[in-house]
Design brief:
This protein is α+β, with helices and mostly antiparallel strands. The protein is built from twelve helices and 15 strands. It has an eight-stranded mixed β-sheet with strand order 1-2-6-7-11-10-9-8. A four-stranded antiparallel β-sheet has the order 13-14-12-15. Strands 3-5-4 form a three-stranded antiparallel β-sheet. The structure holds adenosine-5'-[phenylalaninyl-phosphate] and magnesium ion. The site of magnesium ion has 3 residues, from β10.
């Protein structure tokens, strides 16, 4: 038995050095860019003074001090996983959109950058763990804005119950798990935020039933911070044995940190600027981030006739690979279908902004030119 403060190591612990050639190959299925490769191994969640590390620590504290069960903690599992672990073992249907290379980063057809920490549920259940927390970096091809980033951090929690747990309560096992899940997560939200407005939304995940999302009211809108539910029986039966019930949750650490510390833009987590990092201290939950001078954004539009194969995620990837964190937002501002030809034109507005300095016109124009020419050659669209 590991003590609750020990972070469990496991056979799949991340190698300290991954070479570019391990991740970016010329396999036709490979869709990993250098921008993404450079994030692997940074492990913000392992830096105790970084907001992501501070949040992880606070959640660990909550489970250590407010929950009767001892949760085994994993935070060093390699982000490159078998596609079967990421999808099949958590019952993601064969035709589910998340499997598409438009949404997920593939190293090869059988290997992906995990798109959620749920990729580790089955393997850890097979090791016989009944209560565990897994923290790690996860990767998704996604849109670009203040709350979405292609690399972010999740924490997965799983808690298994046996009949002795629910029989005394007079509830069915599944109901007991649901009640205990919501109590645990509401308690967590209160531990992190004190009084905060929150609401439960019905949701769908292939690996839980029923499923829920928790939203927190932040800067005038509801922000989804986690997904959870009662684990599908099949996953438990197969990996742990029959007769048990369990809950599981997966929460977004950036989203929680943004609410807790008042961090306005998800890109800030990746900066090395001491004006950001210097504001946070290990164990300190009461920091409110003070924006340093915000440099002005620069907007550039690009319009083109799309083809059937066009996707917004592919466009965002092109922009991100060229502009990196200088790309603040990519937004569709016009969508027009020509009445005669039936062709569709999209116009996107790209906001360029640095969190660290003023961008020059020349610099932004050069980025935009490169975006335009890459869009034209790589995305098979016709510029207007
Ligand atoms: C999942 O990833 C499920 N695996 C969660 C889960 C686990 C459900 C166990 C049930 C049982 P979802 O895609 O909604 O669900 O992501 C979970 C959380 O990650 C979100 O609530 C949000 O807080 C965060 N998140 C999702 N996409 C992004 C993104 N692009 N950038 C930052 N945070 C994100
Ligand atoms: Mg969701």
């Amino acid at each position: 038995q590991l003590s609750s403060s020990t972070v469990a190591q496991c056979a799949a612990a991340a190698p300290s050095v991954l070479s570019r050639a391990d991740v970016i190959t010329d396999h036709p299925f490979n869709n990993i860019t250098d921008t993404i490769f450079q994030k692997i191994g940074v492990n913000l969640h392992q830096q105790p003074g970084h907001p992501i590390g501070i949040i992880k620590g606070a959640i660990h504290d909550y489970f250590d001090s407010h929950h009767p069960t001892t949760f085994t903690k994993f935070d060093d599992l390699a982000p490159i996983v078998a596609a079967t672990a990421n999808f099949d073992e958590v019952l993601v249907p064969a035709d589910h959109v998340s499997r598409s290379p438009n949404d997920t980063y593939y190293v090869a057809p059988e290997t992906v950058l995990r798109c959620h920490t749920s990729a580790h549920q089955a393997e850890i259940l097979r090791q016989g763990e009944r209560a565990f927390l897994v923290t790690g970096d996860v990767y998704r091809r996604d849109s670009i804005d203040a709350t979405h980033y292609p690399v972010f951090h999740q924490m997965e929690g799983v808690r298994v119950f046996g009949p002795q747990d629910w029989q005394a309560s007079g509830m069915e096992g599944a109901q007991y798990a649901e009640v205990e899940l919501k109590r645990t997560l509401e308690g967590l939200a209160q531990h992190l935020f004190g009084e905060v407005e929150m609401r439960w939304i019905d949701a769908y995940f292939p690996f839980t039933e029923p499923s829920f999302e928790l939203e927190i009211f932040f800067k005038g809108q509801w922000l989804e911070v986690l997904g959870c539910g009662v684990m599908q029986q099949q996953i438990l039966d197969k990996n742990l044995g029959p007769g048990q019930k369990a809950w599981a949750f997966g929460l977004g650490l950036e989203r929680l940190a943004m609410v807790l510390f008042d961090i306005p833009d998800i890109r800030l987590f990746w900066t090395s600027d001491q004006r950001f990092l210097g504001q946070f201290k290990a164990g300190n939950m009461t920091t409110k981030f003070k924006s340093y001078s915000k440099y002005p954004p620069c907007y550039k539009d690009v319009a083109f006739w799309i083809s059937d194969a066009f996707t917004e995620n592919n466009l965002c990837e092109v922009v991100r690979d060229i502009a990196g964190d200088l790309a603040e937002e990519v937004k569709l501002i016009d969508d027009f279908t020509h009445p005669k030809t039936g062709r569709t034109s999209h116009c996107y507005r790209i906001a360029y902004r640095s969190m660290e300095r003023s961008l020059t016109d020349d610099e932004v124009n050069a980025l935009q030119e490169e975006v335009r020419s890459t869009v034209a050659t790589k995305l098979n669209v016709e510029l207007r």
